[in-house]
């Protein structure tokens, strides 16, 4: 009888393991205490950012995008292609708070964005007519995310979905631009414009960088929404 009970218990445990959707590195925090959440999120980031294909979570480090097109103030048109962003896997979690179905997460990172670009128009007091390689290095960007959650039952299973989110950022150090061929056919003017952009990076980012950074941050957090939509609540939260 004891042997039959043991076999049944093993089968039950195996069934639970097979039914589990979340990766093994996801560790629930009892009572959702801040210290536990901070540690778990920090430990999870480098394992999570390559993606979880089994549930449709794409890679966010590297984060690849084929095309971004936008028209910015002053009639400046920019097109980015073959873009790659790296750096999220080394983000440092500064603080996590959870209360009343709302999470506040603060973290900081160094981010590098590479790709091909085309740009034409006015940026501050200089004119651009460029087509070349682009590299942006953002040093010490502070990200603050607020996520609101709500229970949603699907097929008898409760999920803790992200109802909405808001992400703000502050660049605490600087942005360095490395852009080739900023002014077609004139390496001298291109270098002068590049020097101007780097010397005035804060004004450039404040005026023109927001839409680009917003696009990339929102792509990353869309993956967070997918993650919570697919993972059952009882695999994430232990009260």
Automatic annotation (TrEMBL):
InterPro entries per UniProt: Haemolymph_juvenile_hormone-bd
SMART domains xrefs: JHBP
GO CC annotation terms, alphabetical: extracellular space
Domain of life assignment: Eukaryota
Any one GO biological process: circadian rhythm
Segment forming the signal sequence: 1-19
Keyword tags: Biological rhythms, Signal
Name of a matching Pfam family: JHBP
Family, similarity comment: Belongs to the TO family.
Protein name: (apollo) hypothetical protein
Organism in which the protein naturally occurs: Parnassius apollo (Apollo butterfly)
């Amino acid at each position: 009888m004891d042997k039959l009970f043991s076999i049944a218990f093993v089968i039950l445990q195996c069934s639970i393991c097979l039914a589990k959707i979340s990766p093994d590195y996801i560790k629930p925090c009892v009572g959702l205490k801040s210290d536990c959440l901070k540690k778990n999120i920090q430990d999870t980031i480098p394992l999570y950012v390559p993606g979880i294909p089994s549930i449709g979570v794409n890679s966010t480090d590297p984060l690849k995008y084929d095309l971004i097109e936008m028209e910015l103030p002053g009639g400046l048109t920019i097109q980015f292609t073959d873009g790659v962003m790296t750096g999220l896997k080394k983000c440092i979690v500064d603080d996590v708070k959870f209360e009343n179905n709302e999470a506040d997460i603060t973290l900081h990172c160094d981010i590098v964005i590479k790709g091909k670009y085309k740009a034409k128009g006015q940026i501050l007091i200089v004119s651009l007519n460029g087509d070349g390689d682009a590299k942006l290095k953002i040093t010490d960007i502070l990200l603050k995310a607020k996520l609101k959650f709500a229970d949603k039952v699907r097929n008898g299973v409760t999920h803790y979905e992200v109802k909405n989110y808001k992400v703000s950022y502050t660049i605490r150090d600087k942005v360095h631009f490395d852009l080739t061929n900023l002014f077609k056919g004139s390496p001298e003017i291109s270098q002068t414009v590049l020097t101007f952009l780097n010397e005035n990076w804060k004004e450039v980012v404040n005026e023109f960088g927001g839409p680009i950074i917003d696009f990339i941050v929102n792509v990353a957090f869309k993956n967070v929404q997918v993650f919570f939509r697919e993972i059952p609540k009882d695999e994430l939260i232990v009260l």
